[in-house]
Amino acid sequence: MNCLAACLLALLPAALAAGAPGPDTDANVTSPAIELQPVAARQPADAGAAPASEPQPALRPGTFAIDYDLRFGALGGTLQLRLQETATADHYRIVATTRARGLTRLFMARELLEQSDFHYRDDRVVSLQYELDSGKKSGEDTGSIRFDWDNLTAASVHEGSATELQLGEDIYDRISADVVVIMDLRNGLHPRDMRVAEKNQLREYTYTFEAEERIDTPAGSFDTVRYLRQRTGSSRSTRIWYARDTGYLPVQMEQLKDGETAVTSKAKLVTLAGADPGE
Predict the structure, then answer these.
(1) Residue 255 falls within a domain, yes or no?
(2) Less Cβ around it within 10 Å: N or C end of the chain?
(3) How many C-beta neighbours within 10 Å does residue 98 have?
């Protein structure tokens, strides 16, 4: 994969790549309003400032939609992130779509799609299945993961190669991990360290609090908490601004390579549950 395409794909909120719709095409997605579900307060992490002055009431993962503008120098594209609730109780789907714009189309043949299905039960995200499609006929950067929590294994396929991963606590696919972070912040917690199943491996990610900051984006001005997400052993990291006013949705991101900004991503439209985000 060329450098430009790699950088653009790396800016999904937690995914570091884009992927594809899963096989469950008849789930009858609905868009209910966000429902407040009070839970017992938990204490924020000791290190760094707390994401909120006091623990917030937990929100179930109500639907939302965020449209981002991606920039890589003079080139760029768009990213759409959608969280949907299906007709099955406690079953959610999050979908990310990356599209090239202008000259960037020379590097990216068509849209890139990524999807994760997960349960949200007992205030926990439980990854179920994950699909990734790079849009390349060669099958490069495509894959899938099926989580079998009864047997604590996951059947992972990446670029046609299959392996079995051993599951344990705080293991997610790389897009439902976004929801885990959002829910931690909504509960007044710092984002947890986690292991992410990707490319036939389990990779460790950490989140470091950096600052509270008010930022301006095409979607508006937001009071945010800023975190740095780092994969262990990688020279890449992602700086993410989570907006309090939106229930800690990520409204701005910077992909870093060796500490230097490679790609920026800013929200241009944020739609909360109960409103129509459009196509």
Answers:
(1) yes
(2) C
(3) 27
Considering the entire predicted model, what is its pTM? 0.78
User: 178 — phi, psi (to 5°)?
Assistant: -55, -45
Q: How many CB atoms lie within 10 A of CB 222?
A: 21
Closest CA to 184 of 131, 133, 123: 123
The proportion of the chain whose per-residue pLDDT surpasses 70, expressed as a percent, equals 71
Residue 12 has pLDDT above 80, yes or no: no
Whether residue 279 is contained in a domain is answered as: no
Q: What pLDDT shows up at residue 62? A: 79
Query: Domain range holding 152?
Result: 3-272
pLDDT at 58: 46
Instruction: Burial-class residue 272 by CB neighbours within 10 Å (0-12, 13-18, 19+).
Output: middle
Taking alpha carbons only, the member of 200, 199, 227 closest to residue 211 is 227
Give the torsion sign (CA, 196, 227, 16, 113): positive
As for how many domains the chain has, the answer is 1
Ranges of beta strands (E only) in 102-248 are 112-121, 124-133, 143-148, 153-158, 161-166, 171-173, 194-198, 201-217, 220-231, 236-243
